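I keep forgetting this: the sequence line spells out the residues, with the fold written below as integer tokens. I include a record here:
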Amino acid sequence: MNIEKGKIYVGGFTNDFTEQDLRELFSEFGTIESISIFHKRITFAHIIFTDKQSCAKAIEKYEMKKVKGITLRVGEMKITPEKEKVQDERTFGDIKMSVILVRPMHEDNIGAVGRLCANYGINKLYIVNPLCEIGEESIKVSRHGNGYIENAVICKSLEEVRKDCTLLVGYTARESSGQKNKRILMTMQEAGDMLSTMKGCVGLVFGNESNGLNTEECDACDLLNKIDIRSHYPVLNLSHAVGIALNYMHMRLRDGGDLVPEGCKEIIAKEKGELLEEWKEILHSVMNEQREVGAVESMKKLLGRVMLTEREAAALDGAFKALLHHFHEKEIHSQEINNKKEDVIEQSQN
């Protein structure tokens, strides 16, 4: 009789956890066939049991339970033999992907990108401040992607796109010079690894054919990505760059997005602006105006370089609100003391 194997996802543990640590925690539920540990944006593991019933026991005991001071996330996964794998209808796993063209100059490139959007099942095409007409030529080149051209969302700035996209990934070949505010470029593999553990709305941002993304546009992106071209001439045509980026993300997120089960994926935080406003209030209570400006700018750049999850944003929001409450209570207490002093002085004078 063939006994069906079982597979679980285990997340939430720290980098110093070893395979032996996981065996000690989970071997009580059944015979473990294999353990695979992954170090991506987060560290997690896949554990395969020789029978499926062991999975249910492990999930029942450890899901969202504290073990050795950490909260584990445990979920069941499906075992699919390689030969039985079929193309996932979700082209980018649990990511809803959009393409954003900034100041495009040529209609034919816009049309070619529209065709690519149809090829990869993109959510939306955004065009920020186009420098050319978007008409018959782009429709003609787009072929069956003409719907993306006709329904493209025209915007005046990347901030408008943020209403729909919670994470903006910019593509540029330029590395900033100097140490101050140095621009950090991720490889496509690094960005793909990060997104494979997430779910949410992501926009891939591309500059125009002449000079790419400028400094302000790069600063508006959460992550900056570089397409690795092994050549003395690393400049790509706009539509070629979009095609390479979409194909890589498609392959990485379609085939690798199943490393983390649906219920255990982190949701990309929607809004960082509220955190920045709370940070300003905190600084206003403890710093002079000159130092406050520098600290606000540093926090703004820090938030712009990280991919916050909803859980991380909620934790920061709670900490910031607790600090604000503390400062408010301290201010009230200080005011009460001053009022009492004034009363004593007034009584002594009378």
